[in-house]
Amino acid sequence: AQRVTQPEKLLSVFKGAPVELKCNYSYSGSPELFWYVQYSRQRLQLLLRHISRESIKGFTADLNKGETSFHLKKPFAQEEDSAMYYCALSGGYSTLTFGKGTMLLVSP
Amino acid sequence: GAVVSQHPSWVICKSGTSVKIECRSLDFQATTMFWYRQFPKQSLMLMATSNEGSKATYEQGVEKDKFLINHASLTLSTLTVTSAHPEDSSFYICSARDLTSGVASGTQYFGPGTRLTVL
């Protein structure tokens, strides 16, 4: 069975502080990992995927197979980063398993 | 690109009636669409996977006779909540996978969701 764990329900930081949203997964094969973001009153949208190895809006995430983690990081948080962040795993049949989500609040 | 729409955005109905929700991929073709349910302050729970031209695959615990899914074309999937009851009140979200993204790709594009309230 595949499982995604986001241990923090809420992460509150000040503007300019570094941010790390944790994500751990459980899957026996080679997973595809994603971070999705949901801003207030907006739809869920793809932030980044591990295959692309890209940086979007200053966020990066590295897949660590040894630690089965895919933590999301940003060196300097901005107020507009405040949103709900979901880590998700795809196990090969294109279905996504979501974590419970972490609410990021960035204060001025 | 990769826009998914849902209609209606919200609906209120009486207990016992049926409600149809449409999910459309506007600028791409989607052989596979997904239906999720989201309760307040909770994560998305996959209900079913909808494949164009074939029967939907339902997740464990989801009643297929209750939640009828039809995927008649590469751009449209519908979810019908039959004989709705107050406990069916929820936020229903669809997503679609781009046909060109490759068989193994898990990238999904999400609709804005439909708020269903059953009185």
Descriptive tags:
heterodimer; A: 108 residues; mainly beta; 6-stranded mixed sheet; 3-stranded antiparallel sheet; 0% helix; 44% strand; B: 119 residues; 7-stranded mixed sheet; 4-stranded antiparallel sheet; 11 strands; globular
Structural commentary:
The complex is a heterodimer of chains A (108) and B (119). Helix content of chain A is 0%, strand content 44%. Chain A has strands at residues 3-5, 10-14, 19-21, 24-26, 32-38, 45-49, 60-61, 72-74, 83-90, 96-98, 102-107. In chain A, strands 2, 5, 6, 9, 10 and 11 form a six-stranded mixed β-sheet that branches. In chain A, strands 3-8-7 form a three-stranded antiparallel β-sheet, with no helix packed on it. In chain A, strand 5 and strand 6 (45-49) form a beta hairpin. With 119 residues, chain B is mainly β. Chain B has strands spanning 4-7, 10-13, 19-25, 32-38, 44-51, 57-58, 67-73, 76-81, 90-97, 109-110, 114-118. In chain B, the strands form two sheets. In chain B, strands 2, 4, 5, 6, 9, 10 and 11 form a seven-stranded mixed β-sheet that branches. The mean pLDDT of chain B is 90. Chains A and B meet through strand 5, strand 6, strand 9 and strand 10 of A and strand 5, strand 9 and strand 10 of B.
Outline the fold blueprint.
The complex is a heterodimer of chains A (108) and B (119).
Chain A: E1 3-5, E2 10-14, E3 19-21, E4 24-26, E5 32-38, E6 45-49, E7 60-61, E8 72-74, E9 83-90, E10 96-98, E11 102-107
Parallel strand pairs in A: 2-11
Antiparallel strand pairs in A: 1-4, 3-8, 5-6, 5-9, 7-8, 9-10, 9-11
Chain B: E1 4-7, E2 10-13, E3 19-25, E4 32-38, E5 44-51, E6 57-58, E7 67-73, E8 76-81, E9 90-97, E10 109-110, E11 114-118
Parallel strand pairs in B: 2-11
Antiparallel strand pairs in B: 1-3, 3-8, 4-5, 4-9, 5-6, 7-8, 9-10, 9-11
